[in-house]
Structures are given as C-alpha cells and as structure tokens.
Design the sequence.
C-alpha cells in the first residue's frame, strides 16, 4: 500500500559506513510516497511527475556523496558548500530513475538508488501494459500481411541492449500472458480432449467372464498356476489339472495424456524457457527479470495443476490435428505458439525510449497506440491501401522492423467509392506543414502560412479522381488534425467558474514542462495556420467529449475526444460518429464548407487590382454583398435629351437583346450590375443605382406604349412608321433604376466623383454600344 509522506530517507550501504539520501517536496503538489508492497522491480520510494523535490546526501564517515551525473531531471546545487545537495525535477518523466551514487572526492561509484516516478494518472501502469500488448498484437498482424514469412530459429542475442531485451519480452508477453491466452488454458483444463486407449492388465481368473484366444492359450501355457481339486478334474481333459492364477485382459479407458494436451504442455514449457533465457542475459535489467519471473509464475501455476500432471512430454507433434486447429482453447494456444517465434524477432527502433530501462514513457506510447487505433477506425470508412500498410513493417534477413517512429512521417492512402461521390483519404502520422518559400503561389500550396506545424495525425479528404496536390490547388481538400495528449485529465473549451485559478497556474506548469492548457491552444493554431484545415481535436484519456462547431455543420470545428487504453470499445463510439458525420459532410454537394471552399478558390485564383482606398458606400444591411472589385457597372449611351427624359421619368434603361446589332451577351456581370453610368459622348451623368434582380424583357412595341421615343426619318422629325412596324417585336433587356425625390438616385459617396468622358466612351472603340466594367476599373478613369 502506498503511504503518502512529507519526506523520506533511503539508506545506502557503503564499505566505509552508512549514507542516507533525504528527499523532501518543494511544494504541496510534490507528493512523496513509500510503497511497502511494490513488486515487479518497482521501487518502494515514489515521486510524482510534474513536481520538484530537494535532496541531500548525509553520511557518518565525513565523505561527500552525490549522484553520478546531472541530466534534465537531476540538477546539482550550484553552491560550493552544498555539493551533496540538489534538485529533482520530474517534469513529464514517468518510470524508474536508476541513479549511481559516487564519492565526490574520489569519483568512485559506491552504490545506487532507485526512485519510482508515478504519473498523475493513477491507472498509468495498467494503461502502459494495455498499450504495449495492443501494439504488439497490431505489429504481429502487420507482419502476417507480408509476402515473405520469416522462419529463423528463436534466439536472443547475448549482446542485446536492455531496451531490446525488454522489447522482445513485451512482444512475447503480449502473446502468452494475455487474457485471451489465459482463458484458453482454463477452457482446456475445464473441457480437455479425452481419448480412449487400450491396455492389457492382469486380472484374477475368477473375475474373467469372457475368454479370448489369448486367454485360451494362457490356460495351457501359463506358469503361475493353481492346482484344481480332484472332484473338479473328473471328466475333464488331463491338461486342465490346473489353471492360470492370472489372465491378461484387454482394458479400455479414457485419458487426457494425448498428443493435443501434450502439445499444450510443450508450448507452456517453451514460453518458460524463453523467459528464463532472457533473465540470464547480462544486459537484462532487474525490472525485466522481475516481470519475466511474474510471467513464469503464472505459467508454472498452470503446469502445477492436476490436469497437466497427467500429461506426459510429447514424443512428436501433430500440427495437422483438427482439435488443435478448430477446438476452442486449443486453437488459441496453437496460434500463440505460432506467433511466439515471430514475436521474439520483432524490432522497433521507435520504441527505444518506451523500453528504456525502467522508464515508462506513457505519453509517447499513447501516441503510438492511437496511430493503430485511428487507422483501424478509418478503415471502417475507407479502403486503405494494403501496400501502404505493408510499408509499416520492413523485413530484413535477420529482423523485422516496425517503421513507426516519433517524428518520422508515415502515410496511409485510401478511397471510398459510392454512387454519390468518390472520396480520397490520406491518413498521416507526423506530417509537417511547412511555410512555403514560393510567396506568389503559397495560397495554392499545402502548408502553413505562419511557421512549420506538425500535428500528430492528419486526416486529409478530397473528392474526385485527382491527386492531393491538385486538390490543394483547387481548394477541394479538407484537413482534420488530431493530437495525442496523455497528460490531459479534462478539457476546458469554454469559461468555467475556476478558469481564473487555472490561468494563474499556467506559468508554473509551463516551467515544469507540463503546460496542459497549451495543448488545447495548439488546436487553434493548427486550424488557423494550416491552409484548408477544417478541424483540430485533442485525443486524451479523460472522460469528456467536447466538440465546438464553427458554424452549424460538423466542420469547421475544435474539440477533444476521450480515448482511454482498455476502454476502446466504449470510447471509440463518439469518435466513430464524428468520422461518419465528416464523411457524410464531404458527400454533401451543397454544404456551406463546399461553398466557402469555392469562394476562397475564386477569390485567390488570380492577382487582384490592388488597393481600393476610395470613399464608397459601406457594406451594411441590404448592401452587405457590396464588394468594389466584384461590383459591375453598365456604361450606357443615351442618344438625345428626349431619350434621357424618358429614362428619368420611367426609371428604365433598355439594351438590345438577341442578334440585333448593338446587343450584349447576357453574362453575370450584366445581370448583377449594381450601377449604370449614362453618357451621350459629351456629358456623363453620375453613377446611378439599379434595382436588384436583373433586367426584365420588353418588346419595342411595349416600350413605345410607355412613351419611348420612336424612330425618326433621316434628316426629319417625322416618325418612321415603317421602321417602327418592322421593329415592333424586337426584344430589349430593361433595367430599372432607383428614383428618390423625383430624381435618379445617386449614393452620397458617389456624388463627388467626376468621370473622364474620353476614357470611358472609347472602351472598345464604339461610342453607342453599352458595355460592363468593374467599379474598381471605372474608379481608375475618374477625373482627378
């Protein structure tokens, strides 16, 4: 049981006396404890991560003692008179601190001290074990995907490092010490395979009821005989003057001592032999020896049962036995035995800091573990490329390497085909989004616009039969990022009553290397800095799932999902629902994100006109859509004063349609024009506002009924009735102008501008032909 205390003292035996290490916490959060029941190589003297402690060596022989080396955790006192003192800053370190103790004057090592640094998460030990076993299981499954199986003999290098030895033990332990394997053994012992066997036993002749041919021969030839009484011999052959005392009788019985049960016993003994072999290696740590001993004890507990005492050692193995391959319990043991040789060969360079002697880097292990869990979940929605999965494992002649290494980029690509839309996916581990050096094309490229960012996991989604680079350029791709944060206990995504207190603690936590709130702030950085990012989420072993949507759709958004080791079946449900919604969202052709994607692409696809710093109406209320560079103006010609008066009276301006000379193409600029600028090649009116909604269709005859000036004969004021008759059915686009106080309305911001007549009417070289232009272009041709 762990007993909390304010300080503790550790005695250290040295040849010249006794040395004591005194440790005391520097703050209320610096918890200390003594665990009298510590097992499996765990030190009884325990500290806590994220805390600072003061220590002092005290001796009774006048010598000065200190730890062997300074590092990121151990700091010696800078005062010359305190050479036996220092500080322990555990930071994010979790696991065993094994430190040498030296005589400062002679620099001779005189002993060692082991301290256990516990995580603030009380269940980190079980988490650590669960994640190791899960990773080993995924690893072996990946190896089985390979085309070239490995068949070397099981052996462990005598020169292997402590990390390698513990790694191999962990992989093998995941196979033989798992709950599935334990249950399989119990099932075998509860319901073993039994087989009938025939044997010959000697039985007293009195108890033999049926005589076989062998028995009849024995009646005449057996030496151990009983002489029969004279009365019994009367009338019988002389050879029956005596009968055998015992006869050999065939006897059938069921037994558990058969090949299948013999194989199970053989497998258990093989596992024990491997653990014993590891214990004998020179680089094996005490923790490895203790944990291997624990595994050995469990297996020996099975072998000591009455069941296995009835089972002998096998003379040969029949691996084709239907019982071994099909019967519950036996097939699991066979699978474990087949995986055993494979597991002992696995190597994981990225796991070196996971298996470092005594160290339990739970946070890094959590990051690795989540990679496998996420790719398993993504596989439910997308067909991930099997070739990419195979690249996670590299097989050489003498080892099998897992390529999962913190800081190294990995990618799994996939697709999802449906009648609605084809989707592409790329699942990244440790993808770096760099700042582009190509400033002109940076907006079209992938990356960050501020500084390099590297989320733990990135899920990139895009539609169609195009590559990822083109999807970036077309603004069709969406990035969703996840970061693994084992140290987080809960998330704060909105103001709470105790937010002030937590903010006050930030600085101290940052100095200790456990700045937790920054983990959430980083999600904002991902979303804001990495181009085309629609979401950033924390994955942590807590209890809350918090998602904040940017708008009313699933993305963009921020949040956190609880994913606890040992609770995957329960915790993956919210995360699965989230990914299902994201996929459905990507299939939606009318989503707001899809629209925003297009407008962003359209906005940045070409170079802009430059700055517009003119006095213009504000985009407020009904004019919220007013954007100067996207606002079109109709530059229109009026023939004479009579036509201008009709325009002003009816608030209309007509433009020829169809194939008539002088007609215009009905494009978006014309339909959505906001202003009209009227001129007669000498005078230019001010910019008048058009009514929204586009033009209406009128015939010339309808316009004439409304008082529109009729055609005149050449060099005469006489009406040209013949021409009017022929033109009566001609089609016109008629725009409505806004009138206020009996006059065409000109916005107050536009009244100050005077227009350069020559610069305007010489557009396309045709004075009378209307045309459209942007407001920004028109402003450049105003009179200064």
Sequence:
């Amino acid at each position: 049981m762990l007993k909390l205390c304010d300080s503790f003292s550790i005695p250290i035996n040295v040849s010249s006396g006794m040395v004591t290490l005194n440790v005391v916490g520097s703050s209320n959060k610096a918890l200390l404890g003594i665990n009298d029941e510590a097992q499996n190589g765990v030190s009884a003297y325990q500290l806590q991560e994220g805390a600072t402690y003061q220590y002092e060596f005290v001796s009774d022989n006048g010598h000065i003692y200190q730890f062997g080396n300074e590092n990121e955790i151990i700091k010696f006192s800078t005062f010359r008179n305190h050479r036996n003192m220092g500080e322990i800053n555990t930071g994010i370190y979790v696991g065993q601190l094994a430190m040498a103790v030296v005589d400062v004057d002679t620099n001779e090592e005189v002993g060692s001290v082991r301290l256990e640094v516990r995580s603030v998460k009380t269940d980190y030990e079980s988490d650590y074990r669960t994640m190791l076993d899960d990773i080993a299981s995924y690893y072996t499954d990946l190896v089985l995907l390979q085309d070239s199986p490995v068949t070397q003999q099981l052996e462990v290098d005598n020169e292997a490092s402590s990390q390698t030895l513990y790694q191999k033990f962990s992989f093998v332990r995941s196979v033989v010490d798992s709950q599935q394997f334990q249950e399989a053994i119990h099932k075998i012992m509860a319901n073993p395979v039994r087989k009938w066997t025939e044997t010959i036993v000697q039985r007293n002749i009195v108890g033999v009821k049926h005589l076989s041919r062998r028995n009849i021969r024995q009646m005449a030839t057996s030496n151990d005989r009983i002489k029969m009484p004279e009365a019994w011999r009367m009338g019988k052959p002389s050879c029956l003057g005596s009968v055998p005392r015992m006869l050999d009788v065939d006897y059938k019985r069921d037994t558990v001592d058969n090949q299948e049960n013999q194989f199970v016993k053989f497998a258990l003994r093989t596992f024990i032999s491997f653990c014993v072999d590891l214990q004998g290696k020179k680089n094996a740590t005490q923790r490895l020896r203790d944990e291997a001993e624990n595994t050995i004890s469990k297996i020996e507990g099975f072998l000591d049962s009455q069941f296995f005492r009835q089972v002998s050692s096998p003379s040969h193995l029949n691996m084709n036995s239907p019982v071994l391959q099909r019967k519950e319990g036996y097939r699991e043991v066979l699978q474990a035995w087949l995986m055993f040789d494979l597991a002992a060969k696995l190597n994981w360079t990225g796991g070196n800091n996971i298996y470092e002697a005594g160290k339990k880097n739970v946070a890094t292990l959590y990051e690795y573990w989540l990679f496998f869990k996420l790719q398993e979940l993504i596989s439910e929605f997308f067909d991930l490329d099997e070739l990419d999965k195979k690249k996670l494992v590299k097989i050489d002649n003498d080892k099998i390497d897992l390529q999962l290494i913190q800081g190294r980029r990995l990618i799994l690509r996939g697709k999802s085909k449906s009648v609605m839309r084809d989707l592409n996916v790329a699942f990244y581990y440790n993808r770096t989004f760099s700042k582009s050096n190509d400033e002109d094309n940076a907006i079209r490229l992938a990356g960050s616009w501020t500084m390099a960012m590297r989320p733990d996991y990135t899920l990139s989604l895009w539609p169609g039969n195009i590559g990822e680079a083109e999807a970036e350029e077309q603004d069709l791709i969406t990035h969703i990022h996840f970061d693994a944060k084992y140290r987080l206990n809960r998330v704060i995504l909105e103001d709470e009553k105790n937010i002030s207190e937590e903010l006050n603690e930030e600085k101290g936590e940052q100095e200790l290397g456990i700045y937790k709130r920054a983990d959430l702030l980083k999600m904002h950085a991902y979303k804001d800095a990495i181009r085309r990012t629609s979401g950033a989420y924390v994955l942590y072993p807590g209890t809350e799932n918090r998602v904040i949507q940017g708008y009313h759709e699933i993305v963009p958004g921020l949040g956190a999902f609880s994913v606890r080791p040992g609770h995957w079946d329960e915790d993956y449900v919210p995360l699965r629902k989230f990914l299902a919604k994201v996929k459905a969202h990507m299939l939606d052709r009318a989503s707001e994100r899809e629209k925003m994607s297009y407008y962003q692409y359209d906005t940045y696809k070409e170079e802009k006109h430059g700055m517009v710093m003119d006095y213009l109406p504000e985009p407020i209320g009904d004019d919220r859509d007013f954007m100067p560079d996207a606002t079109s103006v109709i530059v229109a010609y009026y023939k004479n004063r009579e036509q201008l008066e009709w325009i002003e009276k009816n608030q209309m301006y007509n433009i020829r349609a169809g194939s008539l000379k002088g007609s215009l193409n009905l494009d978006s600029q014309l339909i959505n024009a906001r202003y009209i600028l009227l001129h007669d090649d000498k005078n230019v009116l001010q910019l008048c506002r058009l009514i929204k909604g586009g033009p209406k269709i009128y015939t010339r005859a309808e316009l004439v009924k409304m008082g529109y000036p009729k055609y005149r004969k050449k060099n005469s004021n006489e009406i040209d009735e013949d021409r009017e008759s022929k033109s009566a059915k001609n089609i016109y686009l008629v725009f409505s102008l806004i009138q206020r106080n009996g006059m065409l309305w000109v916005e107050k911001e536009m009244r100050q501008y005077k227009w350069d007549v020559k610069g305007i009417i010489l557009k396309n070289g045709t004075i009378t032909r209307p045309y459209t232009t942007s407001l920004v272009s028109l402003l450049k041709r105003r009179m200064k």
Q: What stands out?
A: Residues 195-255 form one domain. The mean pLDDT is 81. The CA atoms of residues 699 and 729 lie 5 Å apart. The longest strand covers residues 108-118.
